[in-house]
């Protein structure tokens, strides 16, 4: 039996084909496929390109795939997202009863902690948090948490801090020079004009990396900004653990996304908040790409779950292929 997994978001799309033993047979890539970030035509082209490439390398057609699982950005948040991806799969020739379209957070969670109860935070420019209860019920974080993610918030706050510093009315910080250099600006007035033009979300998200670099050099303003973000993430994790009734025993929490690359500045505060809330948490960074979770879920949903050894082989195979 052969399975297809797809992971798609605001930056790229990855599709992979594997067999029932966890052997990777084909991989394909496409552009952005989150309909909240890209036009429907571009989303469709990204998915078609990725899936066709994976099937082509595996030497298979859609009819040869026993089950497919798609983890796509925007599903569950945008009403048209699910039907859009379902239509694309039907156009590719996949049977409607042989694929499932899900939010990409659940796929990322499966890649990090496997199939079962737990919590997952996906934190980059955007943000979402999900949980799976011991009974298999799926939960999403309340919508008021979803408008903007920590990466966006860090970038926006850093730009404001840099502006005040440049004008001499805020704390001195290395953030200012880093941001002005990153944006190709010379002073606070130009930064104000840049903000006034409506800075794009992705560019604000990129500024978060500059804050991380400053924190690594012990800039106190940058360190405190990242700590504040970490505390908010800890609150989100505690909320989801309690909603899923996972706060009474050790709860595995998957941490996915660029914000967590800031290291201890972001990672330690959630641990402190979770301890204070009474949640016994094990924080897990994924060792495999999210598309591995899509394949694990495809096998599971088809009633052919991989053994632990086969799942490890699948993750290792994908990680090796994608690292080339």
Named at the architecture level, the CATH assignment of the domain at 2-115 and 287-322 is 2-Layer Sandwich
- What is the name of the CATH class of the domain at 2-115 and 287-322? Alpha Beta
User: Could you state the CATH homologous superfamily of the domain at 2-115 and 287-322?
Assistant: ATPase, nucleotide binding domain
Oligomer: single chain
Q: Within the largest sheet, what's the order of strands?
A: 3-2-1-4-5
What structural category arises from helix and sheet content? Answer: alpha/beta
Name the helicity range.
Answer: 40-55%
What can be said about this structure in brief?
The chain has 324 residues and is α/β, with parallel strands linked by helices. Helices cover 48% and strands 18% of the residues.
Structure write-up:
- The chain is an alpha/beta fold and about 325 residues long.
- The protein has a domain at about 1-115 and about 285-320: 2-Layer Sandwich (Nucleotidyltransferase, domain 5), CATH 3.30.420.
- The chain has eleven helices and ten strands.
- The chain has helices spanning about 40-60, 80-90, 105-115, 150-165, 175-185, 190-195, 200-215, 220-245, 265-275, 290-300, 310-320, and strands spanning about 1-10, 15-20, 25-30, 65-70, 100-105, 120-125, 125-130, 140, 250-255, 280-285.
- The protein has a five-stranded mixed sheet, with helices on both faces. Strands 8-7-6-9-10 form a five-stranded mixed sheet, sandwiched between helices.
- β6 and β7 form a beta hairpin.
- α3 (about 105-115) packs across α10.
- The chain is globular and about 65 Å long.
- It starts with a strand and ends with a helix.
- The model has no long low-confidence stretch (mean pLDDT about 95).
């Amino acid at each position: 039996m052969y399975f297809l997994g797809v992971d798609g978001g605001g930056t790229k799309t990855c599709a992979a084909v594997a067999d029932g033993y966890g052997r990777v047979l084909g991989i394909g890539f496409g552009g952005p496929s989150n309909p909240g970030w890209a036009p429907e035509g571009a989303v469709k082209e990204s998915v078609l390109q990725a899936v066709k490439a994976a099937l082509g390398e595996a030497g298979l057609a859609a009819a040869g795939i026993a089950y497919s699982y798609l983890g796509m950005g925007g599903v569950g948040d945008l009403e048209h997202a699910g039907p859009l991806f379902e239509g694309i799969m039907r156009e590719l020739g996949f049977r409607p009863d042989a694929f499932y379209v899900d939010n990409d957070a659940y796929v990322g969670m499966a890649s990090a902690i496997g199939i079962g109860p737990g919590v997952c935070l996906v934190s980059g420019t955007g943000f979402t948090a999900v949980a799976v209860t011991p009974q298999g019920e799926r939960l999403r974080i309340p919508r008021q948490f979803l408008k903007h993610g920590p990466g966006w918030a860090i970038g926006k706050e850093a730009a404001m801090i840099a502006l005040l510093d440049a004008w001499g009315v805020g704390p001195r910080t290395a953030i200012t020079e880093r941001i002005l250099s990153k944006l190709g600006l010379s002073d606070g007035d130009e930064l104000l004009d840049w903000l006034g033009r409506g800075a794009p979300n992705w560019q604000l998200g990129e500024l978060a990396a500059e804050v991380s670099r400053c924190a690594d050099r012990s800039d106190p303003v940058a360190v405190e900004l990242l700590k504040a973000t970490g505390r908010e993430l800890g609150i989100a994790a505690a909320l989801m653990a309690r909603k899923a009734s996972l706060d009474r025993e050790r709860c595995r929490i998957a941490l996915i996304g660029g914000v967590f690359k800031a290291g201890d500045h972001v990672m330690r505060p959630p641990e402190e908040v979770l301890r204070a809330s009474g949640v016994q948490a094990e924080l897990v960074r994924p060792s495999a790409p999210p598309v591995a979770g899509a394949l694990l879920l495809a096998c599971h949903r088809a009633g052919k779950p991989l053994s632990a050894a086969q799942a490890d082989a699948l993750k290792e195979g994908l990680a090796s292929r994608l690292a080339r």
